[in-house]
């Protein structure tokens, strides 16, 4: 049995990791209330008691806009917490899979970002996640897998898909940003990839994983409405207008085009489905928490 310690059990990815638990894994899954990754002593103590072979850090401060006014909290979790997980892994001789984000980039590249691209975050959230990457690399070297992802959604927690479904029931029309591009990623597929990566000790360093394809938030919203109507999750269609980011100002700047190059991870773990296929499957399953 592989002993796996999971931080961030109540998040979207943590929830899916537990749903897909392999029979060969003994899992200790802890929520933020049960394990504060910003507390080094607590994290090292938990790891020392459990003796994991693998630690998965799916815990993060993800409030992108709020991070602009809560930078100390964002760094405590995303940088220091990541470092604490790495120290615990080093103390136990365990591997670490650390989840990161496309927000470590500025989104100015017209083609997908290779894994070795220079980090250029635009805001506090991205900067704190970039700092976390640097820390785990410094502490663990080749014993860490940093897995960057993007635009994650699931039937659990707060995310764009669930927000759009709610607003499409409540509103007569919606404006959705059309000049930010990325790759929507179903947390279930990401979780499956993480479990496969956990079985591949040679799969390490910085890697990228999202579902295949590219969309704007507007494209994503259009697909959500179309798929939800086809499945009977919505009873009517509403007009969707494509708007510019400048029409929807937020405290934090977002990367305009932070598409990730997944060629290495797809070769190692198997390719992900197109994002629209994954969206359809998620809405078909329509599991509740």
Explain how this protein is built.
The protein has helices at 12-19, 40-50, 71-92, 124-140, 160-170, 187-198, 217-230, 263-269, 275-285, and strands at 2-7, 25-30, 54-57, 95-101, 144-149, 152-153, 174-177, 181-182, 185-186, 205-208, 215-216, 240-243. The chain has 289 residues and is α/β, with parallel strands linked by helices. It has a domain at 2-158 and 185-211 and 257-272: Rossmann fold (3-Layer(aba) Sandwich). A 6-stranded parallel β-sheet has the order 2-1-3-4-5-10, with helices on both faces. The longest helix is centred in the N-terminal third of the chain and has 22 residues, at 71-92. It is globular, with a radius of gyration of 19 Å. The mean pLDDT is 96.
N-to-C series of helices and strands: EHEHEHEHEEHEEEHEEHEHH
In whole angstroms, the N-to-C terminal distance is 28 Å
Here the CATH topology of the domain at 2-158 and 185-211 and 257-272 equals Rossmann fold
Q: What is the count of helical runs?
A: 9
CATH architecture of the domain at 2-158 and 185-211 and 257-272: 3-Layer(aba) Sandwich
Features:
Rossmann fold, alpha/beta, two-stranded parallel ribbon, 289 residues
Give a summary of the structure in a few sentences.
Keywords: Oxidoreductase. By secondary structure, this protein is α/β, with parallel strands linked by helices.
Present the secondary structure layout.
Layout: E1 2-7, H1 12-19, E2 25-30, H2 40-50, E3 54-57, H3 71-92, E4 95-101, H4 124-140, E5 144-149, E6 152-153, H5 160-170, E7 174-177, E8 181-182, E9 185-186, H6 187-198, E10 205-208, E11 215-216, H7 217-230, E12 240-243, H8 263-269, H9 275-285
Parallel strand pairs: 1-2, 1-3, 3-4, 4-5, 5-10, 6-9, 7-12
Antiparallel strand pairs: 8-11
Helix pairs in contact: 1-6, 2-3, 3-4, 5-7, 7-9
Organism: Acidithiobacillus montserratensis
EC number: 1.1.1.133
Protein name: dTDP-4-dehydrorhamnose reductase
């Amino acid at each position: 049995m592989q002993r796996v310690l999971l931080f961030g059990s109540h998040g979207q990815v943590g929830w899916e990791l537990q749903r897909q638990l392999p029979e060969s894994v003994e899992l200790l899954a802890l929520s933020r209330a049960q394990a504060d990754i910003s507390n080094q002593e607590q994290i090292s103590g938990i790891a020392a008691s459990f003796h994991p072979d693998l630690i998965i850090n799916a815990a993060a401060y993800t409030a992108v806009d709020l991070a602009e006014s809560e930078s100390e909290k964002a760094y405590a979790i995303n940088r220091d917490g990541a470092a604490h997980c790495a120290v615990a892994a080093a103390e136990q001789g365990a591997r670490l899979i650390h989840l990161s984000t496309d927000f470590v980039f500025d989104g100015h590249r017209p083609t997908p970002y290779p894994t070795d691209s220079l980090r250029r975050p635009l805001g506090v959230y991205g900067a704190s996640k970039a700092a976390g990457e640097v820390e785990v690399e410094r502490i663990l070297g080749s014993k860490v897998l940093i897995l960057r992802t993007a635009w994650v959604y699931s039937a659990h927690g707060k995310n764009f898909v669930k927000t759009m479904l709610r607003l499409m029931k409540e509103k007569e029309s919606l404006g959705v940003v059309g000049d930010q591009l990325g790759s929507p990623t179903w947390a279930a597929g990401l979780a499956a990839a993480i479990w496969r990566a956990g079985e591949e000790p040679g799969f390490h360093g910085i890697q990228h994983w999202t579902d295949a394809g590219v969309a704007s938030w507007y494209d994503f919203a259009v697909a959500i409405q179309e798929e939800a109507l086809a499945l009977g999750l919505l009873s009517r269609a509403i007009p969707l207008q494509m708007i510019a980011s400048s029409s929807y100002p937020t405290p934090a700047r977002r990367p305009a085009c932070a598409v990730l190059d997944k060629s290495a991870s797809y070769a190692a773990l198997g390719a992900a489905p197109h994002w629209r296929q994954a969206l359809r499957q998620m809405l078909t399953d329509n599991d509740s928490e």
